[in-house]
Amino acid sequence: MTVLANLEEIRSTIKRACDKVNRNEEDITVIGVTKYVTIKRTEEAIEAGINHLGENRLEGLLEKFTSIEDRANWHFIGSLQSRKVRDLIDKVDYIHSLDRKSLAKEINKRANRTIPCFVQVNVSGEESKHGLNLEDVPDFIDQLKNFSNIKVVGLMTMAPHVENEQLLRNTFKELRLMRDKINKQGLEHAPCSYLSMGMSNDYAIAIEEGATHVRIGSKLVGSND
Ligand SMILES: *Cc1c(COP(=O)(O)O)cnc(C)c1O
To answer: How far lies 222's CA from each of 20, 25, 38, 113, 216, in Å?
Structure first.
């Protein structure tokens, strides 16, 4: 399938999900996750109209960046080692995996501008997953107020790999409620208005539950060439 055909299908699914809950499809940002595919396929995504790209490894992002540069907004979506921040920081527009103070400190130190960050939350509490426990999010965000180069624009989660729709919904909903709670505090360093949640298999449900950013890889570009 061409990326364009996949994107058309995704857009109509997004429209249906939005219609169902009275949301505006323009409020949804599709991040094309290109970690599985080549530069050529990534170029095809850009031509199809994707202007947000996501990579989960520094090496992958740098490789694609060489070719795409500022034709896309770059989202770093993988777990991030502090020692890699220095090489990443000038390329990236958003970091989705802020989950510890030491990482915040490093981002703050290396950045020479404000970096919009999503705080990653492990809503389901699975041991294999990165991210803060839900109950630790408010304190963590409070601790970020002195890092002037960090702006918490939202929360991010990865849902468990399950078919159980109710479980997925609850996961997304819990993240939304936490987003609302932080957002209501009106913190200058943490407007926290976005929700990065939903991947190829669950983005429609995520949108029904409030996602503003969906991260779609295999359904958009395929999982290999
Ligand atoms: C790989 C990845 C995605 C995209 O996964 P698909 O199921 O292929 O859509 C989204 N978010 C993160 C953090 C990823 O690592």
So the answer is: 27, 23, 10, 34, 10
**Beta carbons of 7 and 48 less than 8 angstroms apart:** yes
121 lines ligand 1 (CB under 6 A): no
Q: What is the pLDDT of residues 149-170, one digit of tens each?
A: 999 999 999 998 888 999 999 9
Question: Which residue reads 């295999």 in tokens?
Answer: 218
Report d(CA 167, CA 161) in Å as an integer: 10
Task: Tell whether ligand 1 has an atom less than 6 A from the beta carbon of residue 196.
Answer: no
pLDDT per residue over 95-109, tens digit each?
999 999 999 999 999
Q: Which CATH number is 108's domain given?
A: 3.20.20.10
Query: Number of structural domains, the chain?
Result: 1
Q: Specify the 3-state DSSP secondary structure of 105.
A: helix
- Domain residues for the domain of 207 are 3-221
